[in-house]
Structures
1.
Amino acid sequence: MEMNIKQVIPPTPGRGIVIAGPCSAETEGQVMQCAKDLAKLNQVDLFRSGIWKPRTRPGSFEGVGTEGLSWLKRVKEETGLKTTTEVAKASHVYDCLKAGIDVLWIGARTTVNPFSVQEVADALNGADVPVLIKNPINPDLGLWIGAVERIYKAGITRIGLIHRGFSYHGETIYRNVPRWQMAIDMKRRFPDLQMVVDNSHICGNRHMLAEVAQEALNLKYDGLMTEVHPRPDEAWSDASQQITPQVFGELLQNLRLRKPTVDEMEMEPLTELRRQIDEIDSDLIGMIGRRMKLSDQIGEFKAERNIAVLQENRWEAILQEASRAGKAHGLSEAFMERYLRAIHQESIDHQDAIVNKVR
């Protein structure tokens, strides 16, 4: 589908697009304090705040609802900051348009459901408002593309993307693994769409926010969306990933917006390949860590039953199967043996420690 996409926000030279504000609008005082502190930075393009919060389980804070829209209206009037919030169904869209919200965004839990996206698109039909679309929770490029197409078919031409990472079953350093290559593929499919990184939801913690933001800018993203709260530890949702306006200002100050040179452009294919390797390495380390935890459980089982740690028949079977599987993937038998011996030795060390502790 050919699209005539326009910018959601004209980027400020030297820093890109900056979207910031609390995960959730909690009270009018909290919203206004955060907005006023962010306005002092003179670097924020959009003040973000969740009015309706889709939660995984009932009983969690699900947002203040339409009452909070009047607070965002006051933010705009008193600070001059433009505002944005998440919409997930038709009534949200109507309420936001009525309240004069400047930019709407579709969240990851909505993007994953074409029925919900279509409901939002139908409500937007005939409106003139920019829309940002987060990647779906699961790594499905088709769902993200479909959401863009549905919103565009509703007559919205100012569309942008938010990369917030993808759910991952297992241990990882991220709350949502970035899978940078998927976002890069999306940007290649739609080169005119501005893309910002939601470093808060990728990280799920404060200490990695600057690192992930810089990573995105290195990959030529157009800006970032970060959750900022006047008192992060007291936040009603996602407290661990929010930072104060002061800390956010320091984060912005330390970011380096890279300008592509001819050499950098020539290196881009190599950079992307290395990025994929880094992502796979991160997954491998997480999987090896989970393997060792299972090995610990086996060690406890052996200790309880006074079973020897080394089981030679099992080890030989692992070597043979891995050699066969490795060969199918172009890996030499010698490499597979070296790799498995290292893993096996670490497992033995873990189990020895457990058995000796029990004894």
Note: The chain is about 50% helix and 10% strand.
2.
Amino acid sequence: MKLIVQIPCFNEETTLPLVIAGIPRSFPGVDAVEILVIDDGSSDRTAAIAREHGADHVISNNRNKGLASSFQAGIEAALARGADIIVNTDGDNQYSGSSIPDLVRPILEQRADIVVGDRNPGDNSDFSWLKRQLQKIGTRIVGNLARVDVNDAVSGFRAYSRNAAYTINVMTRFSYTTESLIHAGQRDLTVVSVPVMTNPTTRPSRLTGSTSGFLRKQIVTILRSYFMYRPLSAFLSAGLVMIAIGLLPVLRFLFYYATGDGDGHIQSLVLGSMFLLAGYITVVIAFLSDSLSTNRRLTESVLERVRQLEMKSSARDRETDQ
């Protein structure tokens, strides 16, 4: 049983040694623990520091591509190196490496496909009151959309089984956390949360410059994922609402027309007709989008199978080289 801990990094030469030093190299249920650092186009000595402090694998982007892209690259690299379980942690030393055994235990016990580290954001003193409330609301929304039970939807401290990792396809550049949860829910993967320990904050988050900016990007990501993975319910609901709104002025016009006073209420007919037409078009889009979503799921299944074949081929090549 091989565990690979991947660490996406961007200019983390100061904190990366602490992260690597905190990762346990052995614990029950795991035969080997390897560390993979993804250097996302850093301008400092992140890659060199990773090698100097014992990282087993270092891959470097030739330019900064964003956290989501680095996360996806790490997943691909970990699978290619034969990982049975993949743990993702941050390079800013936010998460305590001592919690990794707790994080992977549900996968070892075959109780989960994905495990999300719960920082208890509602009571985390490192977060402002506003951030704690936004975390609660956001987690509840993501949990409902994804149909999974999580306590900290934006936590980057996660463990993935090999089979779960094969299914990951992150489309956004901003962050993988919410999108991957919604995707996991649509794939009927079992997601659980476990409490994890955190370290004192060393620096402000680089993911976004402000709480409002972070909130705006998360809302866009959630809506994008919702329309991508559940287009029928999303567009159909919107279409039916517009049809219902359109019926009201049309019925108003018909009432006055039946009483002989319809000439003065043509505007109600025009307004209602506009909403009815928009609602009809949206309903049609709902069913067309659902057809596209079916094709996307088939494409993802093919991609998952291709990945599995590629990883098996890479494993055979490594055995041959040895």
Note: The mean pLDDT is 84.
3.
Amino acid sequence: MNTGANSGAIQPVSRAESEALLDAIERGCVERGLDRRAGVFGPDSMCWRVHREAGLFLGAGRAALLQLAHPWVAQALQDHSQVMDRPIVRFHNTFRVVYAMIFGSQEQAFKAARNLHGLHTRITGEMREDVAAYHRGSLYQANEIAALRWVYATLMETAVLAYETVLGPMSAADREAYYAETKTLAALFGLPAEALPADWNAFEAYCRAMETSDVLGVSERARAMGQNLLTGAGSWVKPPHWYRALTAAWMPERLRLAFGLPFADEERYAVERARRVLPGFYRRLPRVVRYVGPWHEAQARLAGRGVGPATRASNRFWIGQEELP
């Protein structure tokens, strides 16, 4: 799969193409006999099993930085949003969409997909400077297949990395099953299956190739946004030192240096200690804390119950509101 920025013309995802993907997902749900309240994955899916874990928050900083390393993403945030000056808002915006797609009903998942496509359609502009393979004055577009693929990849690969940090390695079969399911999530983003690597090994190869390619590069503004993110600027959430160190450890070296992330002996010690302590601590957490609010909300919906106060409080942390949109 070609990762180059100049490998061809921009390939935006049209409304018709997005709707065709949603139609295919809906047909698949009908064929599987899936209750519409269970969404597009359902309670027995690997996506529910993985994404219910609050431990995935460990990777939020890494995923956000890898996205900022794509010059289109950084420029679009600079031109169309102020959320990188308020990291908690970007966190809520991202998780609100992803959790609606995974844990929402089918109606909620499809509405989230349509809203995201509409939002991305409006995010277009020109690069203001030369960054990596992108030249000043060249066009960017959020609803473009290669850009969408990278954002999707940062979320899915980081989810597995964080999951395995607190719960141990997935089996090869589970990892492959998870990746296969995430292709449905990618379709909700607007990505057809043929635009994605065929299996997990090919997916990892794509990620490694992107990290060394001229598609990624860190501008001064992206570096500043990354620093704001990891210091919790404008937010009541202040990431501790060990979290910042773990994020730095998970970054490719050239991007870690480009973002100016320290990784000396102090950070290495913090990472080693976190890796020793986190799994035992995490496994002892009560379900109400260990599993995210949107998963609890989905469980209540399937049981015909309302959303309780503990779930509402958890949702406020994860998605910035008391219930999935």
Note: The beta strands are 124-126, 139-141.
4.
Amino acid sequence: MHGKYILPALIVILLVVSPVAGSLSKISAGAPVFIGENNVDISSGLNGCHTIAWWQNGSDVNSVPAVTNLTIYAIGSDSYRIYHFNFSPGIFSGYTGSWYCVDSKPYYTAFTVNEPQIDIRVWDLDRNSDVTGQSVPVSSNVTYRIDTNLAAALSPLNRPNSNPADSPYTFTLTDPNGKTLTTIYTGDAGNSSAPLLIVNTNPPIPSSPYFWSQGEAWDRLARNAQGYIIYPLGTYTFTITQNLNGMQDSYPGNPVDYPGLLSTTANVTFVSDQTAVPSTTGPQPVLTTQPVVSTTIPTVQVTTVATTSPLATKTTYSSLPAVLAVAGMLGAVAVILRKK
């Protein structure tokens, strides 16, 4: 074989021997699955049976099932479907819970069907509270929180070939200007002790609730090399979408048209840290005033003391205006001169 044909041949071989779907496609017997998943390997759950049925939750499985004899593949026919099974919304919506293999008794659970659920919230770590849709100080210690039943799909007990690298989630963070943030500053630019983090756009979410670990390190007061604030005040939007085993192909349109199922969004508005306003009921400041300098002549006090009694009181006369006082003094001088 010529060398130029070796690489294409190897690619073809790998495509043939490699699984069509990712590592999350194969389920264990009785494992949870989600409406909308495609190309799921349910062979372990069937364990050789061909027909499944569904009973209302709590019903006797020895009674007539609500959904009877759903044939996965006919005896003697190609078994391709059991390795590429689609949990079509048209068939499984409204029929959540255990589906049983009913070829023969005793019946056993092949898989458990669930409606996918996913929710994101902005979370204040210091107060351990939901601040979605609120305005908070820019220095608040916040992250995002995910609550979902899809975490079961990353459990090795349910998906034996599961790999965190095959996360079905996509996360985006946008700033008030609509710009998608791909990095997180943990301090001012150039600070060697504050590393620049790459935003994890495919979080594994192995359990629920799940908290974004990078959120706590995000310094929204960080400045760039020119000294300007990197993150403007305003509303930031957190969005998570999921596409477990091509689930988005099962629902027409944009994932955002299926909130809580394929996509979920939360936002928070960062505002300036506010200075505490002094209480009007607390101690009041002491007011000080500058002394007022009088422009009038100092007052003259004349006191007479009676000699008839040691218990006599002092009599004080109010001072005269300055002009009258001067006039009186001049009059006294004139009298003296006249006598001479």
Note: The chain is about 10% helix and 25% strand.
